[in-house]
Amino acid sequence: MRLSSSDVAQQDEEGENKCLNSELWHACAGPLIYLPPVGSHVVYFPQGHSEQIAASSKKEIDAHNPNYPSLSPQLTCQLQNVTMHVDLETDEVYARMTLQPLTLPVQKDVCLLSSELGTPSKQPANYFCKILTASDTSTHGGFSVPRRAAERVFPSLDYSQQPPYQELIARDLHDNEWKFRHTFRGQPKRHLLTTGWSVFVSAKRLVAGDSIIFIWNEKNQLLVGIRRANRLQTVMPTSVFSSDSMHIGLLASAAHAAATNGRFTVFYNPRASPSEFVVPLTKYVKAVYHTRVSVGMRFRMLFETEESNVRRFMGTITGVSDLDPVRWPNSHWRTVKVGWDESIAKERQPRVSFWEIEPLTTFPMYPSVSGFPLRLKRPWPSGLPSFPAFKDDGMSIN
Amino acid sequence: MRLSSSDVAQQDEEGENKCLNSELWHACAGPLIYLPPVGSHVVYFPQGHSEQIAASSKKEIDAHNPNYPSLSPQLTCQLQNVTMHVDLETDEVYARMTLQPLTLPVQKDVCLLSSELGTPSKQPANYFCKILTASDTSTHGGFSVPRRAAERVFPSLDYSQQPPYQELIARDLHDNEWKFRHTFRGQPKRHLLTTGWSVFVSAKRLVAGDSIIFIWNEKNQLLVGIRRANRLQTVMPTSVFSSDSMHIGLLASAAHAAATNGRFTVFYNPRASPSEFVVPLTKYVKAVYHTRVSVGMRFRMLFETEESNVRRFMGTITGVSDLDPVRWPNSHWRTVKVGWDESIAKERQPRVSFWEIEPLTTFPMYPSVSGFPLRLKRPWPSGLPSFPAFKDDGMSIN
DNA sequence: GTGTCGGCCGTCTGCCGACAA
DNA sequence: TTGTCGGCAGACGGCCGACAC
């Protein structure tokens, strides 16, 4: 039995902690987002964290940013707490994690005994996600519900009425109630949300391209969430705090905790940027130390589709090297350079991390001596995993 | 001739620096806000900076926040750059300052030769500021212009028409144009802004209690600015960055710059909180080292009124002590405990800094031996002013 | 001198099926 | 199956002077 982070879904609102619907949070976060359970061991990547801050503040990481030589590029931590949150203004979902750096050496074999490998969380059974059209968000009319979605997720209408209609009451992540008149009319017949819809659109400031999510849960409650297409609204107000200071802040925060054996807190916004900078230790160890990866190798990787589904994209590993050899040497963050099969996928990130991909030819457990093996040192030099992967230059740096 | 910071008014917009109207910026910032000139020497208070972050993020400074023993509570710096900015979303004004910590001892006598004592910037001559009423912001009608304000600031109407009217075009800090129909009608006659007003109100999201500013400048241009009453909108989106990390970030940023003789950047939002944490060195030196202050002494202090005017409030010094003896010993930030004469003023801060007040009995230059003199050490122990003022317990800590 | 209201028009919101992709 | 449109009715925006404080 494991302690699930889903049980501690909470949010800050006026300083008060209220319970927040975990199912809805995950639906808004997307099918690939996974929050490690409380108490589990994770690897924290300050480099990835920095990426998220940079993406959120739309600023490049300044070259003159100080590097913290004392701060390891990957920090093994125990996840002491995870809470789910939602921004009051924008409805962005995010998680708050409290991390306790570990100083004792971690046995990788012990880690592998855990069944926790960071599989993505299951999405709700009865739900749908629709990208809003111009007609949906226009003041001229209501919301056109896709037929199969309406019949699966909404309570069935009394079709003896002409036209049939019902009042739907849906709750959002703030536990606000939204009322919608649901009807089935027109020629040809279609499901529509009319009265109440425009209030929702204007209150949430939805525009065409944004998405709406409806969930019918096990308690027969209707939940509603949104997902914005436009990531630009994630812009930080720089009116009080410089981007530089933020970068320094996260580094100093982690370094201070590691040095003093204290805890530190990070915020993870899964939709602000694809930077999963807190990774389950077992997932990390398996990918980095127990999976053979070499240049030219074919792999699959999961991506989220526009309709909130999961799709596999194929690619080839074209190189393995440090993303930032100067500031973050010996990091495992995005060390894998890849090429994607589909030209549409070219816009996807040209660099991924070992644990994000699924090699098509896997040799489980320890690497062999043939091919392009990873060199494995043991025991680890410290409690922090810092074993360098196979690099382009063929050198083992550590 | 001094280099004024007004000459380098700029803003970041999509990464591009554009010129920003300094006169309008100062009108929005308020009559008491003063930006030291580029090249001048200032004192930076990380403690005050921290206060601003705390106020903006509506969070207390956590007790377990690390203190940076290596970071002086007041840092003498050269102001290398000042730029004025305005938030794209909220129209909040703020300044970005680049500070270069000084390691050489600063001669206080030299400083006093400078005429720069941080006097508040002059407000524009032809301007008015009105707090919006419920009728002003309601969709039911337009904006009622105070008569004397309209006659002083707006071009005079052609009263031969019935009713007289004209088209006003005003520019905001983003250099956007706003058109207003200005007319003079009703019984009794009054000045009104009708067509165009509601667009402005909804675009700026103005509510009753917010203020609007109109300026008629020397180039015969009409400028318009806003000031929000509700400080709550300054809330930081915590969806990507923890308040703790921000506090650590600003401390680490300053400490790193001081240690490596590098520069650091701060953002100063004059309306987010009354925390002027970058003070002209001469103003600081004069107040702390050349003005006799003692318990029981009467003083005056400037405050901003609701209508953007300046008013003096009277008070009595009730004590002098460290605001935070644990984390910030020997700081001069808000060391003066005060009582205010008017009960209305009781809500004002119970603690101020030496340079904010104007003692009614001043002995210029060096302190005498009578009364409650400040003890003056010389030379200073370091280049950073850290001389403790007279404390409640009568002990000189340094 | 100015904040709010009732009166009155005009525009826009928002519900409807038609039609086409 | 569903996105967009024309048509239409009612709600609200927005301009006016009347009052009162």
Automatic annotation (TrEMBL), chains A, B:
Cellular compartments annotated: Nucleus
Domain TF-B3 as annotated: residue spans: 128-230
Protein task: Auxin response factors (ARFs) are transcriptional factors that bind specifically to the DNA sequence 5'-TGTCTC-3' found in the auxin-responsive promoter elements (AuxREs).
Quaternary data: Homodimers and heterodimers.
Membership in a protein family: Belongs to the ARF family.
Name this polypeptide is given: Auxin response factor
Species for this entry: Nepenthes gracilis
Residues of the full protein shown: 1 to 398 of 891
